[in-house]
Design a protein that fits this description.
Chain B: Keywords: Cell membrane, Membrane, Transmembrane, Transmembrane helix, Transport. Chain A is α/β, with parallel strands linked by helices. Helix content of chain A is 42%, strand content 15%. The relative contact order of chain B is 0.17. Classes of the chains: A alpha/beta (268), B mainly alpha (328). At the A-B interface, α9, α10 and α11 of A face α3 of B.
């Protein structure tokens, strides 16, 4: 009887010692990401074997700057059923993931996190730290953050390069409070969207863009197959609107990750 | 009669000018018109010549074409419910255009787009004439139109949904409702020549259509109702509706409303109704296109929405009159 008590107190002491060595919450071991942007941050930060699956979009070289890395993971197409069958202990989704899928996963007892899309550089910093905390990789996150800050400082140009317009399919432009707007500003351009009080992503009639007389027009590349939505990017008035026209808006502009520094450099 | 034509021409001229002066940029009237004619430096000539001028020209041409074909089809089929949009001719043209775009044919040759739309329209109008010629009743005609519209709409939606382009599926609404936003002079040059040819063919049927009002036997006795009339109408309609739809989408009800509104002034004489309907169609579409820019300036409201709001109640009214035993 007495020996038994002593043994259990030894075990308790051992258990306390082990618990003190671990972080407060054990790091998740089976992580599934189902959003193109969280896919990239998770791939940058996860420990080997920790991340099971990324969204199938992350493997598409037209959308994802990390398509090669993503090929090493199981792709998922964002359906609750397939994700549940992977037995994850953490699912990272986006704010735009269908709520029905998320509530289904939560009902099944899976921890679901939905980090918001990062629309400026401070938000990218926040998201790097958040992803590090979610994955229990705080140290890796600190390193990544330091590298990002150095890259960003090296890529940023003084704001004296003139006025630029961002234009994409269906006549949409991106204002100052968007990631694309932040990239443009960091590259040293004034965004003409500000002339019309556009801070977010909004439609800008073609003739207003022409009237703003930008020094540079930044558009993206067209998708395969044709569409009338993209036809506006080949409009003759657009060709005459700005002396410099570049089609550089691409996959580096989509997500708020440390890779946005490449988007800034593409405007050199 | 002459007064009516002068009034319609003036109306079209005023609406054309208003269309040129309507836009989000709010340019000064005199300056923008001067820059339109004489050019100059800066952005105003670009806005006037590359953005607003093609839009106004297409509004005029597409409206005139739809009014003209509506009046001609009504005369030939002797049925006031005939109209290229309702009968699925525009829908078939849109299907042809979508096929040319999604197969990449329109990238290989620019003319493939209006040509494919033209073939689609020709298939639609040919099928209608076979199914419900001058002797077919209203019911046959409308049902044939419903079937052709449904088939063309489903084909368009299927092709756009299968496209690898993420924007394509959202454009089903453009092909079904039509819009003139952000068209360029390229579209004008693609659409205008075949439409002028088609208008010539349709206007050459004026005497035959007049004779047809006396009855088919009388027209045949005059030697005016032969296969040549049918072919000129089919080809003329396809040449107008095909290219118009290829650049502006399927816009319904113009060809229904305009001849109906003008008939009380003109009577049922197709020879007069045809040119008057062309002018009336141009006025209606220019007005609708000004309307979409004023009602919700920051959205691309589809033209077909406005024409349907005007046209569908009239269509119901015409059906009501058929139902109550009166001749439509």
């Amino acid at each position: 009887m007495r020996g038994c008590v002593r043994r259990s107190s030894t075990m308790l002491a051992a258990a306390v010692a082990i618990a003190a060595a671990l972080p407060v919450v054990a790091a998740p071991q089976r992580v599934v990401s189902m959003n193109l942007c969280s896919d990239q941050l998770a791939m940058m930060l996860a420990a080997p074997g920790q991340l099971l699956s990324v969204s199938s979009l992350a493997q598409d070289p037209r959308l994802s700057p990390m398509a090669d890395e993503a090929a090493a993971y199981v792709p998922n197409s964002g359906r609750a059923e397939e994700i549940y069958l992977m037995r994850p202990d953490l699912v990272i989704a986006g704010t735009y993931t269908p709520p029905a899928t998320l509530s289904m996963l939560r009902r099944l007892g899976i921890r679901v996190e939905t980090p918001p899309p990062a629309e400026d550089f401070d938000a990218i910093r926040t998201e790097i730290t958040r992803m590090g905390r979610l994955l229990g990789r705080e140290e890796g996150a600190r390193d990544l953050l330091a590298r990002f800050d150095a890259d960003l400082a090296a890529a940023t140009r003084p704001a004296d390069r003139g006025r630029a317009a961002l234009y994409s399919a269906n006549g949409y432009t991106s204002g100052t409070k968007t990631l694309a707007g932040a990239i443009l500003e960091a590259a040293g351009y004034d965004n003409i969207a500000a002339d019309y009080g556009i801070a977010v992503t909004a439609g800008l009639p073609l003739e207003l863009l022409v009237m703003a007389r930008p020094d540079r027009l930044v558009t993206g590349t067209n998708w395969p197959g044709q569409s009338r939505s993209e036809a506006i990017l080949s409009h003759p008035a657009l060709a005459a609107a700005a002396p410099v026209k570049t089609r550089v808006r691409d996959l580096f502009w989509t997500c708020g990750t440390p890779l946005v520094t490449r988007a800034i450099r593409s405007l050199e | 009669m002459k007064a009516l034509f002068i009034a319609l021409s003036l109306l079209v001229a005023v609406l054309f000018a208003t269309s040129l002066l309507t836009g989000p940029a709010g340019l000064p009237v005199v300056q923008s018109l001067l820059d339109l004619v004489f050019g100059g430096d800066g952005p105003v000539p670009i806005v006037m010549r590359e953005i607003r001028l093609p839009r106004a020209i297409l509004g005029l041409a597409v409206g005139a074409g739809l009014g003209l074909t509506g009046a001609a089809l009504q005369g030939y089929l002797r049925n006031p419910l005939a109209e290229p949009g309702l009968l699925g001719i525009s829908g078939m043209a849109a299907f042809g255009a979508v096929l040319a775009i999604q197969t990449g044919l329109s990238l290989v040759a620019v003319l493939a787009l209006p040509l494919a739309a033209l073939l689609g329209a020709a298939a639609g109008v040919g099928l209608l004439v076979v199914l419900a010629g001058p002797r077919g009743g209203s019911v046959t005609l409308i049902l044939a139109g419903v079937a052709i519209s449904a088939l063309a709409g489903a084909g368009t939606a299927l092709v756009l949904n299968l496209s690898p382009n993420p924007y394509a599926a959202n454009e089903i609404i453009f092909w079904l409702m039509g819009s003139l936003a952000d068209r360029s002079m390229l579209h004008v040059w693609l659409a205008l020549p075949p439409m002028i040819l088609g208008a010539g063919l349709i206007l050459s049927t004026q005497r035959a259509l007049d004779a047809l009002t006396l009855g088919e036997a009388a027209a045949q006795a005059l030697g005016l109702a032969g296969p040549s009339l049918r072919w000129r109408l089919v080809a003329g309609t396809a040449l107008i509706v095909g290219p118009a739809t290829a650049v502006a989408g399927a816009i319904g009800f113009v060809g229904l409303v305009v001849p109906h509104v003008l008939r009380p002034w003109i009577g049922a004489r197709p020879s007069v109704l045809l040119p008057a309907s062309a002018l009336g169609g141009a006025a209606l579409l220019l007005a609708a296109d000004i309307g979409v820019r004023l009602i919700v300036p920051d959205r691309d409201l589809k033209l077909g929405v406005l024409t349907a709001i005007v046209g569908a109640p009239l269509f119901l009214h015409l059906i009501w009159r058929t139902r109550s035993g009166g001749r439509v």
